[in-house]
Design a protein that fits this description.
heterodimer, A: alpha/beta, 2 domains, four-stranded antiparallel β-sheet, 38% helix, B: mainly alpha, ABC transporter involved in vitamin B12 uptake, BtuC, 74% helix, 2% strand, globular
């Protein structure tokens, strides 16, 4: 296994206020890594830092290549797909056009990939000509993930995919994430508050508290950690 | 295999019929409330027509309809340019009229000073305006984050003043005559009791073809897809690797070319001066607002509607006449903004989170 993402001594924030205070973590190729944490711990900021949507200091390497100082567009073209919180649906475009935008960086034929996602998520196929803004929250999340994967990324960043969705839909969605990781070999970094579900599909996890890594380990280790269990798993 | 594969491989006729189909589809997808609104409007139009024909006769009515449509198509062309810029920057570009005015002067230079045929002059002026607008976007607009609406609005206001003054310095304020680009100048034919100029019909066709071409460009090309994506969700487009700057630049160039076309079609009906777009711009803003600011087809229909309202109000209401007709356009803007801010065909901004 080679290292897909290597983050060392990361500091990031908005204007004068720093949110991430020197964080180290890594994602190996093919892994699913979860970052757990409460509201305001800096989970979203960490993902935004990787995509260089905010100014950062420290080291961020994608497959050995530094991304610090590059534009978001350049980072995306290096193979990072980011599904933002709130799903980032292109509401005025049809479902199919959303998928086409996802494949914007590609130059090869994308129709077979579009068909593939219609098979993975039949609901999207049924609604391919509908405006994406008219989809339900769960369907929009399926679309957001499909859109991100249309670019054939090396690394998929998912920001709170469970936000605002019904529990049954969230369960189904996480099962799909697991499938996609296994079948397509897509490396994933997932930020989540729903720790139970996230740990089910994760290989390893980090707990972020107030902008610093508090605990890290394999998914099983974290499940057995008393402090983590009390704070994030609720039993 | 799926229908999408065959769709993209059909020829130009298929593309045109699909564009028309999409337009029809957007009418069909209007909500019940929208359909009721359209129904009320249709009833008002019919009642007014009956009254108008009864008071001043059929021929005058038809002539005013033709004149209204004539104006309406020019408004529609300019409204199209406004809508394109609005989609690209989500601000109304106050300099759009002056950019079109400047482009029309470039047409004038090509046709008068260089002696080129009108149609070629217009095409070349459209190209020059597109390049100039791309340059303006790159140097003045891209300095600012696209979400910084106030800064961009102020920049377009300054452009408005600068271009106006510059045109005055270069070409002075006396009116220049611009010939029509179409054959059979000043010749008319009878149509249901009205006299129609051949050049008018060519203008209508030109505007319709332009709208269809722009629609195809936006719906069938990769840069068009990027343009629609950026105008819908800037952040997501950036995360998909779309080059935001280049895409918005494309929008500016396209809008400038369409604006120059509108100006060059309008100028032959009046005199070309540095302020000649003022009147046209008011009506085009009204059309773009009525059409919903982000709908291409909507702005065209709205342009026709505004043209008809202006001509009818000026013709049939004694005290309005030619001068006050401009006020009817302003009245339409105010009424639309008060009653239905998203216009007749615009997308209401509703987001599911």
């Amino acid at each position: 296994m080679s290292r897909m993402l290597d983050v060392r001594g990361l500091h990031a924030g908005y204007g004068q206020s720093e949110v991430i205070h020197g964080v180290d973590f890594a994602v190996e190729e093919g892994e699913v890594v979860v970052i757990l944490g409460a509201n305001g711990a800096g989970k979203t900021t960490t993902l935004r830092a990787i995509c260089q949507m905010i100014s950062t200091t420290g080291t961020i390497e994608l497959a050995g290549q530094s991304v610090v100082g590059k534009s978001t567009t350049e980072v995306v073209r290096l193979g990072v797909a980011h599904v933002p919180q709130g799903r980032g649906t292109l509401a005025d475009l049809s479902v199919e056009d959303n998928l086409r935008v996802g494949a914007y960086v590609r130059k090869d034929d994308i129709n077979s990939d579009i068909q593939k996602f219609y098979e993975v998520f039949p609901r999207l196929g049924e609604r391919r000509h509908q405006l994406a803004g008219s989809l339900s929250g769960g369907e929009q999340q399926m679309l957001a993930v499909s859109r991100a994967l249309m670019g054939r990324p090396k690394l998929l960043l998912l920001d709170e995919p469970s936000l605002g969705l019904a529990p049954l839909i969230v369960q189904d969605l996480f099962r799909r994430f697991g499938d996609i990781n296994r079948d397509e070999g897509v490396t994933m970094l997932v930020v989540e508050q729903n720790a139970n579900l996230a740990l089910d599909i994760a290989d390893r996890a980090y707990v972020l508290e107030a902008g610093e890594i508090a605990v890290s380990g394999t998914a099983d280790e974290l499940r057995d950690d008393d402090a983590v269990r009390k704070a994030y798993l609720g039993y | 295999m799926s229908s999408t594969v065959t769709d993209t491989s059909t020829g130009a006729t298929g593309a045109v019929s699909r564009a028309l189909g999409e337009f029809y589809g957007s009418l069909r997808s209007l909500s019940a409330k929208n359909r009721r609104n359209l129904g009320i409007m249709a009833a008002v139009v019919v009642l007014f027509s009956i009254w108008a024909i009864a008071t001043e006769g059929w021929n005058l009515f038809m002539q005013r309809v033709v004149d209204g449509v004539d104006n309406g198509f020019i408004y529609a062309a300019m409204a199209l340019a406004l809508v394109l810029i609005y989609k690209a920057t989500t601000v109304v570009n106050f300099a759009q009229g002056e950019m079109a005015m400047f482009g029309t002067y470039i047409t004038f230079v090509f046709s008068s000073d260089w002696g080129l045929p009108m149609w070629l002059s217009i095409l070349m002026a459209m190209l020059v305006s597109a390049l100039a607008a791309a340059g303006i976007e790159r140097t003045l607009i891209r300095q600012f984050d696209p979400s910084n609406h106030l800064a961009i609005t102020i920049v377009t206001l300054s452009l408005f003043l600068i271009l106006g003054a510059l045109a005055g310095v270069i070409w002075a304020y006396d009116g220049k005559g611009l010939p029509s680009p179409f054959p059979k100048r000043n010749e008319t034919f009878g149509f249901l009791g009205a006299d129609v100029e051949y050049s008018s019909v060519f203008t209508w066709i030109t505007v319709i073809v332009t709208v269809v071409l722009v629609t195809l460009l936006l719906n069938r090309t990769k840069i068009g897809l990027a343009f629609r994506a950026v105008s819908t969700n800037l952040e997501s487009s950036r995360l998909a690797g779309v080059h935001i700057g280049r895409t918005l630049q494309f929008g500016w160039a396209l809008a400038a070319a369409v604006g120059t076309l509108a100006g060059s079609l309008y100028a032959p009906t009046t005199l070309l001066t540095p302020t000649f777009m003022g009147n046209l711009l008011v009506f085009s803003f009204a059309a773009a607002t009525l059409g919903g600011l982000d709908s291409l087809g909507g702005s065209v229909l709205a342009g026709l509607l505004i043209g008809l309202i202006q001509t009818m109000a000026g013709g049939y209401v004694d005290r309005i006449g030619g001068e006050l007709a401009t006020a009817t356009a302003l009245a339409v803007i105010v009424i639309v903004l008060a009653v239905k801010p998203s216009g007749l065909f615009g997308s209401a901004k509703v987001e599911r989170v």
